[in-house]
Structure formats: C-alpha cells, structure tokens
Write a structure and sequence with these properties.
homodimer; alpha/beta; Rossmann fold; 13 helices; 10 strands; 42% helix
Chain lengths: 320, 320
C-alpha cells in the first residue's frame, strides 16, 4: 500500500503545476487568540483560496494530471460542497466540461456557484446511493473521468501543497492541526509534514458529532460515518480507502470537539481576526480552546480549510 | 486657515512615529467584485488594524505628539465607538490613563473592549450635551488632555498615514474612495493624496440617511448632522471645523448611497473577499455598485475603515 503514497517529488511537482491557477494564501496570527490558547498559532488562510477553499488545489492538480486523451471528455463528480465548485472552476480554466451530480436539496447558493463556473449539473435524490448511481449514468453517457473529492491520489497531492506552503511561511511548527472529513486535506497535510517538516506532529480535529475518523484511527479500520450531526458541513463524510493508510501512518492523533466550541472558535476568528470562515475551518481552533491539544508555548499551525458559509444563518447571529 | 494644515513632513514623521505600534495593513483585490463594478478596486484593509479600525493610527500619533508635561495626566475623550477603543489601547501602550466618557446605552461589547484596554469609563446620559459636559468635568478633575476623535490635527495626521501606505502598495490610482463621518479619515486621506499621489481624485462616500457632509460640501458651510438614520454607525457625526477646510480644498466630490446598497456591499465583501467589515466600511463599495462614481476600467482605491461590528445582528442574517 505504502508504495502508492504520493512522494515528495509528486507534491513539489504539483506545486509547480498549479501555482498559476491558485492563490499562495497568507498566514495570519492574532495576539488575542494566542493569549487565549497560550500558544503561538499560525492560521493558513485557505478561506481566501480560489473558489473559497483548499479544494481548488486538488481540483486543478487532478485535471492537469490527466492524460490528454482523458481530458477531452471532461470530468465528473458528485458533491454538494466545495469540491463541486472547485472542480467546475478548474475545468472551466482549461476549457473542459465538468459534470456535477448534486442532491436536489442542495443549497441554492452552492448550485448557483457551480453554474457560475460553467458546471453542468445533474440533480438526484439526496441519498448516497442516488448520487453514486446518477454519477455512473452521467459517466457512461459522457465518457467523463470521475474526480473523487478525496479518495484520489492527485487530489491528495494537490491538497498537500497547502501545508508545504505553510512550512515555508512560518518558523518551525511543533504541531499542525487539520480538520478531517473524508481525509483528503488531512492525508495530504500528513504527507507534506512527513516530507518537509520533520518533528512537526499532525493532529486531526473532528466534531464529536461526526467522529468516524476518531473511531477509525483508534480501531485501525475505517468506521463509516453514520448519521453525523454537526454544523461543520464539510466534515460529514467517511474516510477514503486511499486516505486512511496515510493517516494511520503519519498522523499522531485525532481529537474531537463539541458544537459549542466550534461556534465559539468561529466567532473568535470573525470577531478578532476579522475573517470569514466556514464552520469546518473552526474545528482545530475549537480543539485548542477545549485544551484537547494540551500544550503551552508551542508554535501551532492551523489550516483554515475554507470560507464558504451561508451568511444568512451564521450560528452566532441571534436576530429575531 | 490653510497654514495650519498638516504638511507632508508631518505625515511622514507620523508614519515613522507610529509604525511600531500599528499594523501596515494589507491591500486586497477580488476578481468577482472587479467584474461587477467594471473597475480594478484596491481595498486597504484597516479592518485588520490594531483595535479593529484606522482609529489606532490617529490615537497613537496624538499621544506620541503630546509634550511630556501633557502626558503625565493622561488623555480623555467622549466616544461610544472605535476612537474610544483605539485611544484606550494607545494610552495603555505608553502607560498613560485614558478617561473615556461613554453614553450609558453604549453597546456592552464596546464597553467591554474599552475596559479590556484599561480605559477608565465615566458613563453619562446619551446626549451630546451630557457627553460634552461630563467630559469637561472629567478633564477638570483629572487634568487629562482631550483627544477629540477627528477635530484635531495630530489625529488627522495619523489617519493620513493609511492613504500614504496605500499609495506605496498599489499602482497609481485614478480615484480614492473614503467614507466620511466627522471627517478625520477623509481630511487625512485628502492631504496624503494631494502630497503623495498627484492626479488621484478623492471621492467622499456617505449614507443618504446621514448626508451632512454632502450638504456641507456643496453649500460651502458645515451643515450639522441632525437625526441621522443609517446602519453605518461610524458615520453619524457632523464635520469638524479643522476637517472641513481640508475637505473643501482637496476632495473632488461627495456622493451618497442607500442603506440597501450598503448592506449589499457589506455582503459582497463577506461572501466574496471573506473578510469581516463594519457597515461604515461598505459605503464606498456601495457607491461603486450604485454607479455614483461613474467610471469604467479605472484603478480605484477604497479605504475599508474598520471591522468592529455586532456579529449577533449582521444585516444579511435572516435567522428566525
């Protein structure tokens, strides 16, 4: 299995390949938050990334890694989230069609964003079975290549570039905290850390209401995510079979946090750092607030995964 | 009158004087917003400034410009907004007491912020008369020096440093848009533009519901702000006698915008640029959205004045 892991050269090549098409996002610090959590925290702002999330890294890398004969028919995926937008945008950049299967109850703002990027949407019932069967039909009909949101090595390699950049932008980090959903960002982050920042420990952070990665990590087998309940809508999915072995090998631990801490962390970043993030991005800071990473005076990186949030229903808003 | 205007040397000296105590804030662009308004817009992010607003520039400059014998007794002001926080913070930096007169109905979050910075608060009735008479009593008792939020040349000079920085961070701007309340930021911006960016036109932007600067500018006499009604809570005050002559001489025009446009501009900056701003900061972009600055294809600077907003009542939140 390990032989298939993306290599350090793969990640360096991906950085070169995608650099004209993504932002090298900034890293911010905030003195109030540092005092509060008693560590020095470096936030990698993928909320400022193209299409509003780290997903643009993997999507661009995946498309540019296709063979020419694969590219002609376009790309396809099922997603109601950031991957859909990122893949549609990346395909549009290179003049490829992007076929996106979305559940018919997907938020209008996400549907509009995919359409804005020229994505060709097929709606389906809101079940995993319907999403997968509809995607198979779309692929049979179009000949498009499936680009899975996380269970795909070129996606993992693309997502790995965020941490690789971060290590160049900060002093040596003792810890790097990363949210975990399907494991695309986490597995990429873990690889980059192993290759480019020896001595930095990667900690995965997950909502307690969607703790399948926690249970998978400590049991050694993928435990599916069943009826997850969390505001962190990017972290609902189960780990991928390509992501899990990387995570088992290179991640030091998985911690879980409460919904209240996620909202508190989100509010802190809005109120003090003046940035807009989506709930999933707040999960690592929530772990620091809860003391789940029980260290003081350390240098801690945090990947803020994205900023695509429904502004009409922000959780700290209490307007009547 | 003109002889009293701060000079280019005054502004350059202020930059040196304050640089260790403030952020050199970044300038951001957003391709979606550029397409929408058909100009290239450069946002100067004073929402990321210390204490969350440009006011920290003036407050630090004012305190560091006091004679040593003036400093011993501390500083005083009446304010329920960003100046109160900025002055308290600046005074704390240099170990001076800051006496802040606040109306007793000031938002709790603003009171807490002033206290966090060590400000000594005296509450009063929520009228201008009560604020001024209470401030006089505080000054009589303490011997503190009054630092007016805008009608003060060292404040104007401090605020001028934001535009001076912006000109170094961007290509030559055709226009520079600035919100106007009391005129501290606007008069400083106008001076920096006249001194450091010849050929750039300064346009003041104001809510139609608080259009005293518009009426003052075009009548040539200060028209007081009477019962202003706007979400832009930083822009309620009347122009200062020291600010107005500078504005008349160096500002090209004043435009007004609707409340709906202010909210739309605010939402755009949250949704697309992923940054948190206060309503006052959205007023210049609202002017571009409304076509009040009727140009295309130009390079336009916008000063985002601050990011201190009540997150519980964001105007685009519609949670029930």
């Amino acid at each position: 299995m390990q032989n298939h892991f993306p290599t350090s050269s793969d990640i360096l090549d991906a950085r070169t390949r995608i650099q004209s098409y993504i932002h090298k996002t900034q890293v911010i610090t905030n003195s109030y938050i540092n005092s509060l959590v008693e560590n020095e925290v470096f936030f990698k702002c993928e909320n400022f990334q193209k299409a509003g999330a780290f997903k643009s890294r993997g999507a661009v890398n995946a498309i540019l890694s296709l063979r020419p004969d694969q590219q002609t028919k376009g790309v396809a995926t099922h997603s109601s989230g950031n991957h859909a937008q990122a893949l549609a945008r990346a395909a549009q950049l290179f003049g490829l069609p992007a076929y996106i299967v979305m559940p018919k109850n997907a938020p209008l703002v996400k549907i509009a964003a995919v359409k804005d990027y020229g994505g060709i949407i097929t709606f389906c019932e809101p079940t995993l079975e319907a999403r997968e069967s509809t995607l198979r039909k779309v692929i049979e009909k179009t000949g498009a290549v499936e680009i899975h949101p996380y269970n795909n090595y070129t996606i993992i390699t693309g997502q790995a570039t965020a941490a690789a950049e971060l290590f160049e932008q900060t002093p040596k980090l003792n810890y790097l905290l990363c949210p975990v959903g399907g494991g695309g960002l986490l597995s990429g982050t873990a690889l980059s850390t192993a290759y480019f920042s020896e001595g930095t420990s990667v900690i995965a952070c997950e909502p307690a209401g969607a703790d399948d990665a926690f249970r998978s990590f400590y049991s050694g087998e993928i435990v599916p995510s069943v009826q997850p309940r969390t505001i962190a809508d990017g972290l609902l999915t189960s780990l991928g079979t390509r992501n899990f072995p990387i995570i088992l090998k290179y991640v030091e631990g998985v911690v879980t946090v409460s919904e209240a801490s996620i909202v508190e962390a989100m509010r802190l970043l809005y109120e003090r750092a003046k940035i807009v993030i989506e709930p999933s991005s707040a999960v690592p800071l929530a772990a620091l607030i809860e003391g789940k990473v029980a260290v003081k005076g350390k240098k801690i990186g945090v990947i803020l995964s994205g900023g695509n949030v429904d502004l009409a229903t922000l959780p700290f808003c209490n307007k009547q």
